[in-house]
Amino acid sequence: MNAEKFAQAAEAVAPFVTEWFGAVRGKAQVAELFDPGASPYESGATLLTPLNDTDTKLLQIAMVHELTHAAFSSPRPWIYEGLAHFAQGAYRERQENRAAALDFMGLHRAAIVEAEKAIAAEAKSAAPSDESLITTTIDEFFRSKAAYVWWMLRDLLGEEGLKKVLSAYRADQDKDPTYLQQLVQGQSKRDLQWFFDDWVCHDHGLPDFRVESAFPRQASQDNYLVTVTIKNLGAAGAEVSRHRAFRRWGDQRTCGSSRQE
Question: How far is 115 from 120, CA to CA, in rounded Å?
């Protein structure tokens, strides 16, 4: 009976996955773990899990992940796994609203912060490795942090723009670290070198946004206009309300070179 509920969940989310990633090319498989207390484990499009969790919404979110793997292939873990986790957040938004999706994405946040702290501590004691998404083997980076990168790319390009990028992506042509960046910039018509420098090609940590000032004024009898200045004290850039936050100055690195600005 519970296995049937997994199948029903897969059927329910299939149109969403197809809308984003194209037709499912392989089979998403669920294998039962007989220990009801065992932690679920996924490998590619196969999910090993106890079948005792029958919450419809959670089952659908789990199957979104597996069907995304079955529909979209990439040799790069941050694309392959990051998209599957991003898809779960996007589907959570479809289930309810953006606030619910951000709460779901927030489940990844603590793991990312702790991983970044560990990298920062390593940098103080030894020559640190550059844990870019392109080369990292850290789960919290190529799964969780990558999911946020895809979420930000959706905000930068718009939903339809990102779908077009994914539709144009070909796994067998992804032989260069800048391949995806070229697809994204071709769709956005913007120079997003700063974004890929900070989030994909290198690990510059996380943004640290602070409200520097806020000035409210009454625009009409019932409305107020509030002007807020947001300052980014972190080393990684991001956009706030489609305006780029303050970014670091000094050494600006790219995928293939570095220069002083």
Answer: 9
Question: Is residue 247 pLDDT above 60, yes or no?
Answer: no
CB 17 within 8 A of CB 87: yes
State how far Cα 219 lies from the chain centre. 38
At residue 76, does pLDDT exceed 80? yes
Q: 31, 46 in Cβ contact below 8 A?
A: yes
Q: Smallest Cα–Cα separation from 235: which of 199, 183, 187, 261? A: 199
Residue 31 to residues 7, 49, 55, 67, 72: CA-CA distances in angstroms? 12, 6, 18, 15, 21
Average pLDDT over residues 54-73: 89
The residues near 41 (Cβ < 8 Å, ≥ 6 apart) are 33, 47, 48, 49
pLDDT value, residue 65: 92
Q: Which residue has the tokens 């957040």?
A: 89
Confidence of residue 251 (pLDDT cuts 50, 70, 90): very low
Amino acid symbol at 89? G
CA neighbours closer than 13 Å in the CB half-sphere of residue 35: 6
The answer to whether 91 and 59 are in contact (CB under 8 A) is no
Q: What is the DSSP string of 67-122?
A: HHHHH---SSHHHHHHHHHHHHHHHHHHHS-HHHHHHHHGGGHHHHHHHHHHHHHH
Name residues whose C-beta falls within 8 Å of residue 160's C-beta, 6 or more positions apart in sequence. none
Ordered alpha helix ranges (H), the chain: 2-21, 56-71, 77-95, 98-105, 109-125, 139, 146-157, 159-168, 179-188, 193-196
Instruction: Reduce the DSSP state of residue 190 to 3 states and report it.
Output: coil
